[in-house]
Amino acid sequence: MSKKNIALFASGAGSNAQKIIDHFRHHAFVSVGLIVCNKPDAGVTKIAATEGIELLLIDKAELQSSSFPSLLQEKGIDFIILAGFLLKIPASLVEAYPRRIINIHPALLPKYGGKGMYGHFVHEAVINAGEKESGITIHYVDEQYDHGATIFQATCAVLPADTPDLLAQKVHLLEHQHFATVIEELIAGK
Ligand code: GAR
Fold this sequence. Notes:
Distance between the termini: 10 Å
Structural class: alpha/beta
Number of helices: 7
CATH architecture: 3-Layer(aba) Sandwich
Bound molecules: glycinamide ribonucleotide
Number of strands: 7
Function: Catalyzes the transfer of a formyl group from 10-formyltetrahydrofolate to 5-phospho-ribosyl-glycinamide (GAR), producing 5-phospho-ribosyl-N-formylglycinamide (FGAR) and tetrahydrofolate.
Site (Raises pKa of active site His): 146
Strand content: 15-25%
Enzyme class: transferase
Radius of gyration: 16 Å
Number of domains: 1
Keywords: Purine biosynthesis, Transferase
Binding site for (6R)-10-formyltetrahydrofolate: 103
């Protein structure tokens, strides 16, 4: 199998991006070739510098431009991994990378997804609704927020004493435990 090159898209601290980079360091058939970020001061930009991975800072207009998919293709990107990326992926990119864009969402979709549902907003909504369970969803990306086919879910309990911060910590643990291996299995099966 020829080596597959992934781009990590992230808008925040980048703890998932870091785990994925660590997992695929010296890997047989996957490498992380690019980090794409829309927030110049996001933690993930420092990870790119420390790891020596090319960083592409973009804004919404660049993401939506018709030349963006070919820019990624020219850079040899085979798969796009959204690791806390908060801009909507345009249809042009979905069409250029069919079933090759993967997102992680910090809840059990189809509940608690959609526009504005990210980070602590998700955990607040889960707790306010009195849910007994939350977790993570790894799914293919389509033109709608948090909507494409589910690849993997893992759950954790929501306890009466849980705050949004505590729940976020549990969910992050699940993300760090599973995201990279799910990506690896998915790429191995293509
Ligand atoms: C993760 O919990 C991810 O599930 C979430 O952003 C966080 C990024 O954390 N994504 C969304 O909410 C997308 N709707 P990180 O920057 O530490 O990896």
